Amino acid sequence: MTTTDSPPAPAAPVRRRRSSGDTERGFSRTFRWIATGSGALILATLAAVALFLIVRAWPAMTASSAELADAVPRYPDDTSFLAYVGPLVFGTLLAAVLALLMATPVAMGIALFISHYAPRRLAQVLGYLVDLLAAIPSVVYGLWGIAVLAPAVGPVWLWLNEYLGWFPLFAGGASPTARVLATVSVVLAVMILPIITAVSREVFLQTPKLHEEAALALGATRWEMVRTAVLPFGQSGVISAAMLGLGRALGETMAVLMILSPGFLYSFNILQAAQQQTIAAYIALDFPEASGLAVNALIATGLALFVITLAVNMAARAIVARRKEFSGAN
Amino acid sequence: MAQRIDVTDVNIYYGDFRAVEGVSMTVDPKSVTAFIGPSGCGKSTFLRTLNRMHEVIPGAYVEGKVELEGVDLYGDDVDPVAVRRNIGMVFQRPNPFPTMSIKDNVLAGVKLNNRKISKSDADDLVESSLRGANLWNEVKDRLDRPGSGLSGGQQQRLCIARAIAVKPQVVLMDEPCSALDPISTLAIEDLIQELKKDYTIVIVTHNMQQAARVSDRTAFFNIAGTGKPGRLIEMNDTATIFSSPAEKATEDYVSGRFG
Fold it and tell me: Is ipTM > 0.90 here?
């Protein structure tokens, strides 16, 4: 029902549509081209990046290990290309997953507080603050990580290592400077907190009033209402929010580069220095001095990161799509 | 298990707006009481004050006394959560929890607050509640299927089963049939007759035939105009309200002259 189609003039619409600019013939057609063009541009960009990565990575992936060992600094002798990328993939995933494990519960807590507990005005302020957190450049996070966080958590890491050293993650030694993967993960967790919080908050706010009231009318406390109505409804939304956060943590370069003392091991000792490295930080660190085959090798690690991130985002998409079936919009 | 409700001089507000004023009434135990009246007259709002669901809306509050067997539900020491456990509610649109199975929906209220229940007790409760809601025969073979897969009428009966599974004193129904087809409506109305043997039932309805069919007593609410508070105009035995009401406005409404 549009307001322009008034009952007294039933024959008019055809003529009016032609004379007005807002039709399929006028601006609408132009807009369709703009929209289609934008869509095509995305595809073209993605294809260009993927093509660049594959073409430039190819020489490194097909080179012999001897050639690679000659050209690439820090390339271990007598290893295949996969064994070279492996520890980097491992370090990247470890840092990102740890960050995700720390950030998701906190983000859910903040989102629930904003959506269901805080008074409306406080909720608004908090929402803005969380968005502000997302606006901090990653290089600032890196500085903060080195200057503030690392000295602060150093003693905590030492304590964890001493008393909870039996737990694999806290085993090995603990670096007193705290420029270790544990610190990196905490910084990454803070960095991905805003996106997870923002998406979760939106999902929680969309919980149908009908279901919340159903729970309350059964005699649910506020927490029980959240548990029976809000969380089941928001579950898959939170999962996809976490995946978005994971995608960001995987690709984060600057903060990792600035904080982490790198190593190239398959090591779970996140309190020890010189154990792991992430792909993004590795590329940023070595690219300025690389030439020839070394550049190809770096680009090949970039390809690995691209594939991992793509897989994570596709998984997030799949979960979001599955969500439609039991969203409760019946 | 059924208890009486005494309401004394209740005013209901949404923020500064007084939606309902000066309502006093008595709801008899083991009977069906119907609230009728034009849209916006405050009958649903009033119904929601009976189990303290009104205050869930930000800024909404209630003045006056609502007593369940002499206990003021709005007393200082009364927990609204406890009130809602004693006074169940069925809503206008069926609202089973979409992510739960039929069985879990029935048990949802019981499982709240971590009350533990053995598996055999749970199964018995599911069966008795679903039988109580006349739904058992239709769903007994698919208790583990999602509740949202049922038809609208079945979903509404599932919601009634969920409400009576916690063994409330009173069941409030807010236009329970307005989203249902005539056959499902008939099923719910039959069910209401069954339920009144054990429960005190208060039902809001827009359908005057329905009020005449199912209720023992009827309360007529009206508003003087837009923006004015709703009032209880008249309450009496249903037969009296529909045959010889005391107020002119009631007679106009039940005879279809307005509303």
Answer: no
